[in-house]
Design a protein that fits this description.
The protein has 533 residues and is α+β, with helices and mostly antiparallel strands. The chain is built from 29 helices and eight strands.
């Protein structure tokens, strides 16, 4: 695929679905959607003058900890949006060749991130999911006695660049694309030779390439397995065979610089495997409450508001969710010591399809008492849900939400010690202005050194037209990174003539992306469109 076509696909995909599934969508995503041709010109110039761009304007990244479970953390990376599109375009340009090296789809072994461009939905992958992978495992378990259940430890951060580079260079007719990809990876990882940025489709494709050799080692030995990303289920006739396969897998992954998670690696009987996966097996359900959760897990909550059939799709989603007691499921989860993350995430994602009074019931369940602490592994999802449904909730419900959010900060909740949590917390606070919230945002801005959080606060304060604060903060422009600088360009429009004079004074320091962002927001401002939070 030529690079121009790949850039088109990358812009469409990111404009519709965002840059990662980890960070809040940057406002540049709206720019890609509204002005794709102008953005494409910049990206083609980056491609034509790659070495100059890498030397003069290398990719900036935001790194932050994200919570995994109750006490686990991992690093995630957000890439400067224009460089991120270019990174994805480079990978897309050779993805068909990468896909050709992988285990064939029809073998039913590898379910994660199978490339197949969907023009209508602007999606890169077939709709095979982790749920499909687990269902395949249940199906295979009927023919074997034992199962090896395991996953790879710290998968993305430990992928060696030279392994990726070797695999890329073995692809036919790829020109200098491997070198460009490796230059970007080296820059993203701060000049160390391992690790892929977590969360975006380009890294997912490259991660799948990193496991091709191991998949083939298993397949060519007629070992029955299924895999989704770093999760494996391997099926064996005896415990002895299972142990031998586990040794083999460990050896092959070690050759790639990877290892298995000791605590999550086990050999179990197929009966134990099916019991563990009972929530995915409708035939095994006996408990009426479990059946309710099963109905929820069976609903596809993927909804595209830009689809030609968006209205019909949303009504179908509402109809499906109507038959499930979402509030009851959330109530049962928060009453536990440890939540079922899969069920809880699905229930939170379903809140948007509820009726307005039910939305408040669901959100109040999440925020009541100490429930938010129990929900700490899905804190980001809770904040997303609050922001998404806030306007649909009655005034008394909004007041309750605001009170609970303010209390989180005033009590010094440990949940707000995670930077990514703070960024989503700031967005949840943004829905209605108050003096107390302003004080919290100013405190957050003054205490943090993180561009991700500072940028979010600037955007919220601009949407509230806090002129006194913005007038002061724009004086710090030269000391900010490009992330905050772009936010200030947009924020300056709330300052009227003062903002106009400031833009004239600073525009000589802008690059082409900043000029496009200025033109894009100027047009939105003149049309009195909603502020892009």
């Amino acid at each position: 695929m030529n690079i121009e076509t790949a850039i088109d696909l990358a812009i469409q995909n990111i404009a519709r679905h965002g840059d990662t599934d980890v960070f809040p969508f940057p406002f540049e995503t709206h720019v890609f959607f509204d002005h794709p041709e102008e953005c494409k010109k910049i990206l083609l110039d980056m491609h034509a003058n790659f070495e100059n761009y890498m030397a003069q304007s290398p990719p900036s990244t935001l790194e932050t900890l994200t919570q995994v479970g109750y006490t686990g953390f991992r690093w995630a990376t957000q890439i400067e949006p224009f460089w991120n599109v270019y990174y994805l375009a480079l990978v897309i340009s050779i993805t068909e060749k990468i896909e050709a090296t992988r285990e064939p789809i029809e073998k039913g072994s590898v379910y994660s991130y199978r490339y197949s461009w969907d023009q209508d939905a602007a999606k890169l992958f077939l709709p095979s999911t982790w749920h499909d992978y687990k269902q395949k495992g249940l199906e295979l378990s009927n023919d074997y006695q034992y199962v090896v259940v395991t996953d790879i430890a710290d998968f993305y951060p430990r992928i060696y660049h030279h392994r990726i580079e070797n695999a890329l260079r073995r692809l036919p007719d790829v020109g200098d694309t491997p070198k460009r990809i490796m230059d970007l990876l080296f820059s993203f990882s701060k000049n160390v030779s391992y690790g892929l940025p977590v969360g975006g489709p380009a890294s997912r494709i490259l991660a799948e390439l990193a496991l091709v050799t191991t998949d083939l080692q298993l397949s060519r030995r007629n070992i029955k397995f299924c895999r989704y990303a770093d999760d494996y289920c391997i099926f064996c006739e005896s415990k002895s065979d299972a142990y031998k396969v586990l040794v083999l897998l460990s050896e092959k992954l070690h050759n790639e610089g990877l290892s298995l998670q000791k605590k999550k690696t086990k050999i179990i009987t197929t009966e134990e495997f099916r019991e563990t996966a009972r929530m995915l097996d409708p035939a095994s359900q006996q408990d009426p409450l479990a059946e309710e959760e099963q109905k929820l897990l069976n609903i596809s909550l993927r909804y595209d508001p830009y689809s030609d059939t968006a209205d019909e799709d949303y009504e179908a989603l509402k109809s499906a969710v109507k038959d499930v007691d979402i509030i009851g499921i959330l109530g049962r989860e928060v009453s536990k010591t440890t939540i079922d993350a899969t069920v809880t995430k699905q229930a939170i994602n379903a809140i948007d399809a509820l009726e307005p009074h039910e939305k408040y019931g669901a959100i109040s369940t999440l925020l009541e008492g100490d429930n938010i602490t129990v929900l700490s592994p899905v804190f980001v999802l809770v904040m997303r849900a609050i922001k998404g449904v806030y306007d649909d909730i009655p005034d008394y419900g909004q007041e309750f939400i605001d009170k609970q959010l303010v209390a989180l900060y005033e009590k010094g909740s440990q949940l707000l010690s995670v930077d990514l949590n703070i960024s989503y917390y700031v967005l949840a606070l943004s829905k209605r202005r108050s003096l107390t919230k302003e004080e919290i945002l100013i405190s957050i801005f003054d205490r943090t050194t993180k561009p991700l959080i500072k940028r979010q606060v600037i955007m919220v304060m601009a949407s509230w037209e806090c002129h006194y604060w913005l007038t002061d903060i724009k004086g710090q422009y030269s000391g900010f990174t490009e992330w905050e600088k772009r936010a200030l360009i947009i924020a300056s429009y709330s300052l009227g003539d003062e903002g106009k004079h400031w833009r004239i004074h600073t525009k000589d320091t802008w690059g082409e992306p900043e000029k496009i962002i200025r033109d894009w927001y100027s047009n939105r401002f003149q049309k009195k469109m909603k502020f892009p939070l």
